Amino acid sequence: MWDYTDEVKEHFIHPKNVGEIENPDGTGNVGSIACGDALRLTIKVDKATDTITDAKFKTFGCASAIASSSKLTEMIIGMKVDEAKKLTNDDIARALGGLPKEKMHCSVMGREALEAAIADYRGTILPMAQGEVVCECFGVTDLEIIRAIRENHLKTVEDITNFTKAGGGCGRCHEKLQAMLDKELHGEAAPKVQKPKKMTALEKIRKIEEVIEREIRPTLKKDHGDIQLVDVDGNTVTVSLRGACAGCQASNATLKDYVEKRLREQVLDTLVVEEERP
Questions:
Q1: Known catalytic membership, residue 170
Q2: What's the whole-number mean pLDDT along residues 251-267?
Q3: Is 62 tagged catalytic?
Q4: What distance in Å separates the CA atoms of residue 21 and residue 77, rounded to the nearest whole number?
Q5: Which fold has domain 201-275?
Q6: How far is CA 235 from the centre of its chain?
């Protein structure tokens, strides 16, 4: 059993600011339910003073994830955006009286959600999203790993996993993680990645969801049909056809000639769309 502080227990049992702000000024989505942790942070900003006036969260995860998200919202309400932008995962963990080392990634997730919400508010691109994916299981980039190593003085691959979840799945990235760690510990400059080399799993899912909601679903509804995203496994997209589309003789043509074609054009040209089987 994890040794949680009273502050962590309080924010887990009685979380503050749970929910979602209507018409938020900034939204940050990080993690993935498929990976075990997901956080959606919404903020409201007084544009005249650039002050965060409200913050709410929705978290799928463990006690540490819920407590970190709850504490984060308390911390940033009343802060100037530039001040909030300087918060680190260590600030969140210390405000909770500490977290078990195996749960430090929960505070990292809170910090990343805040960065994403601020970037959304300001209409800027997140620098961490421009890295190359190192851990395929959790969609963690090299830039995220390098920052965690530097800011938290990480010394082992296990440390990296505790703070970022990278390497906590299949383990195939352990050699890459060790190489990055060795490079950082020996004082060599970290590689600079100017633009994205590969879409993360979470980015891929979000883009698929966006295309379905923006284009595909409205078109199908015109003919009294509907569609729901069921799963994304690698490049295989599983959907469920609803309404008039369900059981239609032309359903396969709808999937391949329309849904798959649109997703390949707007997300990734190697995607394969399949219908959920009963």
A1: no
A2: 83
A3: no
A4: 13
A5: GMP Synthetase; Chain A, domain 3 (3.30.300)
A6: 19
